[in-house]
Amino acid sequence: MGDADSDFREMIADEWRGALNDSEHRQAMRRLTLVRAAGRAFGRKGFHKTTLDEIAAELSVTKPMLYRYVKSKQEILYECHRIAVTMAEEAYEAAILSGQSPLEQISLFAEDYVARITSTLGSCVVLTEFFSMTDEDTARIQARRAQLDRKLRSLVSQAIEAGEIAPCDAKMAVFFFMGAINGISRWFMADGSIEGPEIAKIFAAHITASLRPTKDMP
Amino acid sequence: MGDADSDFREMIADEWRGALNDSEHRQAMRRLTLVRAAGRAFGRKGFHKTTLDEIAAELSVTKPMLYRYVKSKQEILYECHRIAVTMAEEAYEAAILSGQSPLEQISLFAEDYVARITSTLGSCVVLTEFFSMTDEDTARIQARRAQLDRKLRSLVSQAIEAGEIAPCDAKMAVFFFMGAINGISRWFMADGSIEGPEIAKIFAAHITASLRPTKDMP
DNA sequence: GTAAGGTGTTACTCGTGAGTAACCCCTGGC
DNA sequence: GCCAGGGGTTACTCACGAGTAACACCTTAC
């Protein structure tokens, strides 16, 4: 456990203790803090190797305390996924509202989405561990992701029609770049050598390039 | 449980029963069959939601049987990862031996690697569930993946020096396209509408394109 | 026919960690 | 001084599923 890590732990614990305003608001804030801390732990060690006792310890409390804020461990994981998919949806909406060209919108979406998931505030982690959720929760998240995928495919199709990019299989294209983005959580924070916003720029550039015409594109 | 699935089950069970030659060889074959069946299940339901009883049932035997071929459930997962990383290494070696240009080598590597992991024979699944392994096993696999990453970065650097692609952060570039490839296991086989080799071609094309020069590459 | 050994089964143990019951104490209001 | 109740703890229960012990059958070898 390095220095940076224990600093972070203290930050989290402070956040937990703080916000002593009206109790309903504090309840919500603590819940969010809890989910973030848990998400961070899930990202580092995986869902099943992270015990609730550990999460509790990170917040300087004991396990039963956690049940004041969440119903179950599963619910925490669901919340992490919910936050992540919400970020993606928000990034999409923002891109659409920009009024730019389709390709530009894809690039904006990618940059925004990556920036959001890498910002520490936003439970940077967990796009993995899909299966550890309840079947019900998995279905809920899957549905939202699928809908977003469809919208993105449409964006790719529009870019093709507009002649911005070479004709390609839109579904595969979306799988391609969403896979790359979702993979970030696997290595991010392992080496702190690069900052979120920079990653976002680089990835957006690669994605834009990956869709551009090449001689032997199918 | 659809028709295709039960067909597959029968195939697996047949493979298990078959190969009645000398016992050492059969032992090895059965072990491989077991690992493949397990890998397939892990890919569908996740490591923790797949019980050994289920895997055994898929092979039409009972749990204790499995322990004739593997030491533990963990070992099965390790084996899956070992196979996957070995495939990547083999694809890399083959690409290097081709004697093509660096960019061409990257493309060849990507296509070969994707083709291998999507071929049903090769336990198409599981590049997720990293954390469910023993710490020791995780370290072993991580080390091999890290080494491969370094080699691929070097290939990217060579492509830059050769002027084949625009200057970029080689580490990020590798993370980008390896992320996209490793993401395949999340959606592959969900819809059988597209074949492995075709995916391989499309992904290789996207990767090549993603590295090509663009006006605003950092 | 019987011993050897390979193939398989039934019926357990046992650790682990999620979830809970029951209690404790501190602070503020009267 | 005493009670209400929120924040917190200790010390359990209990299910699940990996791993194992012990037994059972069947075939081939002599």
How is this structure best described in words?
2 copies of one chain form a homodimer. With 218 residues, the first copy, chain A, is mainly α. The first copy, chain A, has 2 domains: 3-70, no CATH class; 76-211, Tetracycline Repressor, domain 2 (Orthogonal Bundle). The first copy, chain A, has 10 helices and no strands. The longest helix of chain A is centred in the C-terminal third of the chain and has 27 residues, at 135-161. The model of chain A has no long low-confidence stretch (mean pLDDT 86). At the A-B interface, helix 8, helix 9 and helix 10 of A face helix 8, helix 9 and helix 10 of B. Chain A binds a DNA duplex (30 and 30 nucleotides) through residues 23, 51-53, 61-65, 67-68, 72-73.
Which range does the strand content of chain A fall in? under 5%
Q: Provide the domain count of chain A.
A: 2
Broad CATH class of the largest domain in chain A: Mainly Alpha
> CATH H-level name of the largest domain in chain A... which superfamily?
Tetracycline Repressor, domain 2
Structural class of chain A: mainly alpha
Based on DSSP secondary structure assignment, what is the total number of beta strands of chain A? 0
| Low-confidence spans of chain A | none
Q: What's the oligomerization state?
A: homodimer
Q: What is the helix content of chain A?
A: 55-70%
Distance between the termini of chain A: 49 Å
Principal-axes shape call of chain A: elongated
CATH topology of the largest domain in chain A: Tetracycline Repressor, domain 2
